[in-house]
Amino acid sequence: MPRSSWQRRSRRPRRALRRFVLAQPVLDYGALEPGAKATDFVRATAGLGTDLILLHGYPYHRHAAHLAGVFPHVYADSGAALVRTGARAATVLAEILELAPFGKILFSSGAHGLPELHVVGARLFREALGRVLGGWVSDGAWSLSDAQRVAGLVAAGNARRVYGLD
């Protein structure tokens, strides 16, 4: 497998990568330049023994969700995608739920700046999740108990597990 340019720049890429990832366990996906470089980075971190949480993936939320589905140490955050899409938040959340395993999607408000934006982000998430899962239940695709279980995972359970808050 060819080495990417960031791997070639360092004589000891694994050691440098370990220092970077362990020093910054929450990773801003936007800083990875989505595409092949991001995939190379995620692949290179697979053996480091740390989880990666891909933040701020919108408009690359589908790629972030896909990486969470492919790599056992990768999780996808849904927050920024929902805050930036407003009325289309349910559509974006459904796309994330289509690709990432339910146990690997994390809620965040996606907000920064004004404190009130955290409330807006939480409300958008709650309404979007209700529309998506409620629609699947009303269509007969899911049972109510399955929807409630997934809502609990995404809204809080996954974060508790990943961050060791239980």
Net shape: globular
Low-confidence stretches: 4-11
Amino-to-carboxy terminus distance = 40 Å
CATH fold assignment: TIM Barrel
Oligomer: single chain
Derived structural class: alpha/beta
Architecture, CATH level 2? Alpha-Beta Barrel
Domain module count: 1
The CATH superfamily bears the name Metal-dependent hydrolases
Mean pLDDT: 83
Query: Which CATH class applies here?
Result: Alpha Beta
- Tally of individual helices: 8
Order of strands in the sheet with most strands: 1-2-3-4
- Helix and strand succession? HHEHEHEHHEHH
Q: Name the beta content range.
A: 5-15%
Global Rg: 17 Å
Sketch the major β-sheet.
Answer: 4 strands, parallel
Count of strand segments: 4
- The residue fraction in helices comes out at 55-70%
Walk me through the structure.
The chain is of the alpha/beta class. It has a single domain (5-162), classed as Metal-dependent hydrolases (TIM Barrel, Alpha-Beta Barrel). Helices cover 57% and strands 8% of the residues. It contains eight helices and four strands. The protein has helices at 5-8, 13-23, 36-44, 61-70, 79-85, 89-99, 116-138, 144-162; strands at residues 26-28, 52-55, 74-77, 105-106. Strands 1-2-3-4 form a four-stranded parallel β-sheet. Helix 5 crosses helix 7 (116-138) and helix 6 crosses helix 7. The radius of gyration is 17 Å and the shape is globular. The chain starts with a helix and ends with a helix.
